[in-house]
Every structure is written in C-alpha cells, then in structure tokens.
Amino acid sequence: METQVIIVGAGITGIRVAQVLQSAGIDYRLLDAETVPGGRVKTNFTNGYTLDHGFQIINTAYPEFDNCGINLQELNLKPYASGAKLFFNGKPNTLADPFREKNALFSSLFSPHAGIKDLWLTYKLRRRLSNTALQSLFDQNTQSTADFLKDFGFSQTFIQRFFKPFYSGIFLERELQTPAAMFAFVFSMFDRGYAALPQGGMCALPAMMCSKLPAEKVLLGHKVLQIETGAVVTDSHLRINAPFILLATGTSVMNETGRSNWNGNHSASVLYYGIDTDLGLGRYIGLNAGGDGKVNLISIPSNVQASYAPEGKKLLSVSLWPGLTATEQNAHAMLKEVEKMVGQSINGEFLGCFNIPAALPKLDMLQYEPQIGHPAEGIWCGGDFSAYPSLNAALRAGTLLAERVLQS
Ligand SMILES: Cc1cc2nc3c(=O)[nH]c(=O)nc-3n(C[C@H](O)[C@H](O)[C@H](O)COP(=O)(O)OP(=O)(O)OC[C@H]3O[C@@H](n4cnc5c(N)ncnc54)[C@H](O)[C@@H]3O)c2cc1C
C-alpha cells in the first residue's frame, strides 16, 4: 500500500495529526494496534455503566480544544463541582470555590483542614496565575510541587489533607515531586475552566474527533512491528510505503529515540462499583485526607453525567494511591476502606477494575511547547511526553507533527 504519510498511534496525538492532514488534502493512513481509537483515553461499557480507564476528566479551559476546532458542546459535557470533600476520621468537610459553589461558603471558611492563611494564599495564587500567560507557567521547572507549596506558605495540614490527595490523583505520584510548572498549569486550568465528563464516557472525545476522518484511512488492529526508511510493516503483514512516518505511540518502544526527557511512567488504578446511594458526595470528588490505607480518591461520575449509570443506580469510582494495584481479589477490601473513609455502609456491586501501567510519562523537565523528535530521515515523533502529561499537550504535539509534513 502507498500513501503520503503514515501515522502510527491513534491516540489523541495521532488523531489530531490525521485531522490536520485531512483538512490539508494530504493522503495518510492512521494505524493503531488497538481496535478502538483513543489510546489512553479509553472507556468500557458494562451492564449499563460507563467505566473510564482511570480517573480522567476534560478540562474545558484547555486552549488546544479551541485551537484545534474541537466543539466541546458536541460532547454534552457536565462539570464536577469546583472543590472537594475531604474525609478525615470518617467526617466530610467541603472545601470549594465559594464563587462557584455558593453552598460551600461556610464549610470552606471554617474548614478544620485549611486556616485563613491557606484560603488567602489560595486566592493570591489564583490571582497570580490567572494573570500569567500559560507559556510562562512553565518557567517554574526546577522546583518540585511539594517544595513550591511549602515555600508559598501553605500550612502542612492543608498540604497533607488537600493538596497531597488531590494532586496525587492527577500527577499519579504521591510525593508531589512533579515540577511546579505542572501544578501551576493544572491549578490555572481548574481556575479558568471546569473539570467535566462527556456523555458516553471519555472515549467520546477521540470518537468525535475520528468521526470526521474517512474510515478507509483509519486502520485499527494493526500493530507496527518494524519501521524501515519509507515503510512500516505490521503484525498483520501489511506493508505500507510513505515518505513521511509520524510516530504518535506514547512512550512505547516505537518512540524510543524521541524521548530524551523521559524517565519512566506513572501508573494508575481504579475500581468501579454499582451502588444505590449518593454517599453525600454530589458532584464533588472525595479525598482521603487522612492519607491512611490504599484509597486515594473517590467520586460518583453518574452524579456528574447521569449516563454513566443505569437508571436508579450510581457509579462509584475508587482510585488507589499511585503505585498500587487494583484486583478483583481486593475489590471487597477496597469497598470496606471506602466505607470507613465516608463513615457509611455501602451496598456495592463490583463492576470491574483497571490498572494502567504507562498512564502518564515521568518527565524531568516540562515545557509548554512540545519538542518534536526527528530520529531519522522521514521520521518524526511526538506526544504528551514531548511537553507535559495532558490532553492539551497531546493535541498540540499532533498539530506540530502534522506541520512537519506540511512544511516539507
Ligand atoms: C488514568 C489516566 C488519567 C488521565 N487523566 C487526564 C486528565 O484528566 N486530563 C488530561 O488532560 N490528561 C489526562 N491523562 C493524560 C492523557 O490521557 C494523555 O496525555 C493523552 O491521552 C496522550 O495521548 P497520546 O496520543 O500522545 O498517547 P496514547 O494515548 O498513549 O496513544 C498512543 C497510541 O499508540 C498506539 N501504539 C503504540 N505502539 C504502537 C504500535 N507499535 N503500533 C500501532 N500502534 C501503537 C497505542 O495503542 C495508542 O493508541 C490521563 C491519562 C491516564 C492514563
């Protein structure tokens, strides 16, 4: 088979490349080893429940959604509440943005986990970051998030009970050693937009992006085993020739030479249960503020986006602390931990669990603009690992990869 461009990997980066080439009228083939597009943005459907692979959200403030012409309205997004319920010794306390969650004003002001100085510093940080260009947030690269929070003046109590469980669930590492640049970016995105879930699960995003590509150009279930100059060979013995080969394969071995800044991956694990009650969480995520046990954070995605559970039921999502593994065998024990955390007994049906070993790339230095790798003549590679772990970076990397072809 002959084409102009081979894109290996139909995650968000690869799909974005295909979108740009499609608009430019360039012939391409988008290949993926998996039988559904989306890469790490994946969802399973079980007995009327929608199970995302890991706790994932769409942040409505990501500028690349606009830059890539992605119409978020088509996803019928529904937002999480702006804040969290902190569970400490079986008691919840709602800590939220009082400008958005008016009912949480009192509980936030008089939280046992945040002093007045912590609230003032949070406000000050919001003001500072909202006035900073996103690119400049990435100047803060040499300091860890943990050191930044301490130096900024937040109390140890607030750091331990709020920042640690909240950002562990995002960075997928517990010591908050992730560069403060990533913290600044995520904090700023939550301030500028909402964390939201699409109707139909997170996979609705790649599905929507792919729906505008001609089916004959998207070849799923073909794992690329070999790359030669001007050709790839798949496990299905398909040989495709093209002058341009773009690798959008995440941190898999295919991208080996383009990952200079890469230092392994962070893993994620999540368990799902069908339950009958709301646990008082509403649209908030629940944090294990005490830090004990294996559970990091919980949420009820069906309270945010009703389509995540069948009528009359709720979906409980339980994320474990980074590095731990979820299994069917420990599903009962994890539900018991949640009961202890929220101080209520739960009638739960185990639905399934996911462990994602290469969930996020561990990067020593982060940069806002992805650095596209050029390992050999005619071959380029990129993805979130080229910048910082986020859908925003993956989209931008896709645009830049496509531009390499357009410029040639
Ligand atoms: C649990 C979890 C939670 C997350 N939460 C968020 C979040 O809330 N917000 C956010 O912005 N980001 C989040 N992310 C990160 C975000 O999902 C990634 O940054 C983004 O999806 C990366 O896209 P990508 O296309 O670069 O890579 P991938 O999604 O890894 O895509 C790579 C693709 O290449 C394919 N591939 C690999 N090797 C081959 C081969 N040899 N032949 C053919 N195909 C191959 C793979 O099958 C895969 O489909 C999360 C990720 C995880 C796992």
Query: In CATH's first tier, which class of the largest domain applies?
Result: Alpha Beta
Number of continuous helical runs: 12
Sheet with most strands? 7 strands, mixed
Structural class: alpha+beta
What is the approximate shape?
A: globular
Radius of gyration: 21 Å
Strand content: 25-35%
| C-alpha termini separation | 22 Å
Say what the CATH topology of the largest domain is.
Polyamine Oxidase, Chain A, domain 2
Provide the list of bound ligands, each named once.
flavin-adenine dinucleotide
Can you list the strand order of the major beta sheet? 8-7-16-17-18-15-19
Core attributes:
single chain, 408 residues, alpha+beta, FAD/NAD(P)-binding domain, Polyamine Oxidase, Chain A, domain 2, 2 domains, globular, binds flavin-adenine dinucleotide
Any overview of this molecule?
- This protein is an alpha+beta fold and 408 residues long.
- It has two domains: 136 residues, FAD/NAD(P)-binding domain; 244 residues, Polyamine Oxidase, Chain A, domain 2.
- Helix content is 29%, strand content 26%.
- A seven-stranded mixed β-sheet has the order 8-7-16-17-18-15-19, with helices on both faces.
- Strand 3 and strand 4 form a beta hairpin.
- Helix 1 runs parallel beside helix 12.
- The longest helix is centred in the C-terminal third of the chain and has 17 residues.
- Flavin-adenine dinucleotide binds next to helix 1, strand 2, strand 19 and helix 12.
- The site of flavin-adenine dinucleotide (FAD) has 34 residues, from helix 1, strand 2, strand 19 and helix 12.
